[in-house]
Design a protein that fits this description.
Structural class: alpha+beta
CATH topology of the largest domain: Substrate Binding Domain Of Dnak, Chain:A, Domain 2
Strand content: 15-25%
Number of strands: 5
Order of helices and strands: EEEEEHHHH
Number of helices: 4
Strand order of the largest sheet: 3-4-5
Oligomer: single chain
Largest sheet: 3 strands, antiparallel
Helix content: 40-55%
Radius of gyration: 21 Å
Shape: flat
Mean pLDDT: 83
Low-confidence stretches: 172-185
CATH architecture of the largest domain: Up-down Bundle
């Protein structure tokens, strides 16, 4: 896993200034989105920035220290970036919403694919499984061929995938929700 460290006020990486990067290794294999990594930032009185990434399951951690004079922006550059952030705030918000919608679709597709491969697929008929597999494949194809689709397109595809999958997994999901509620009581 590559950890990039940026400074700036914009929501997209390309509009900010890279300070440094480091690579996390020895991360245990897990399904996409299952590994938890905690990133902490510390700035001392001298302006030294220390960024630490820790894999929570293994306590494996790595740190990078960025010194004030190592490529940091000047106050004039920071002021300019703040002005740009204010000027492009609406555009940045739209980009953030679009990216979040894309990520929701991608996460849902991977989650459903995992559910089909797990024991939960025993409750799904072959016809349902084919229909869902086709819908997941369509979503993945859409994601790879429509990098710059708008938020509504991603939301529409997500809704369609949810509509197809909901009847297949609702009894299982409802049972696990009830079990979670019992645990809380």
């Amino acid at each position: 896993m590559i950890i990039d460290v940026y400074e700036g006020e914009r929501s997209r990486v390309k509009d900010n200034h890279q300070l440094g990067l480091f690579e996390m290794t020895d991360i245990p294999q897990a399904p996409r989105g299952e590994v938890e990594v905690r990133i902490t930032y510390k700035v001392d009185a001298n302006g030294m920035l220390e960024v630490t990434a820790e894999v929570l399951g293994t306590k494996n951690e790595k740190t990078v220290t960025i010194e004030p004079e190592s490529g940091r922006l000047s106050q004039q550059d920071i002021d300019r970036m703040v002005e740009e952030a204010e000027k492009f705030a609406e555009e940045d918000e739209q980009a953030r919403e679009r990216i979040e919608a894309r990520n929701r679709l991608e996460s849902l597709a991977y989650e459903l694919q995992s559910k089909l491969e797990e024991s939960l697929s025993e409750s799904v008929t072959p016809a349902q499984k084919k229909k869902l597999t086709d819908a997941i494949d369509e979503a993945m194809e859409f994601l790879s061929s429509n990098e710059d689709a708008d938020k509504d397109d991603f939301d529409s595809m997500t809704s369609e995938l949810e509509k197809i999958s909901r009847p297949m997994f609702r009894p299982v999901d409802d049972a696990s929700d009830e079990a979670d509620m019992d645990d809380e009581l």
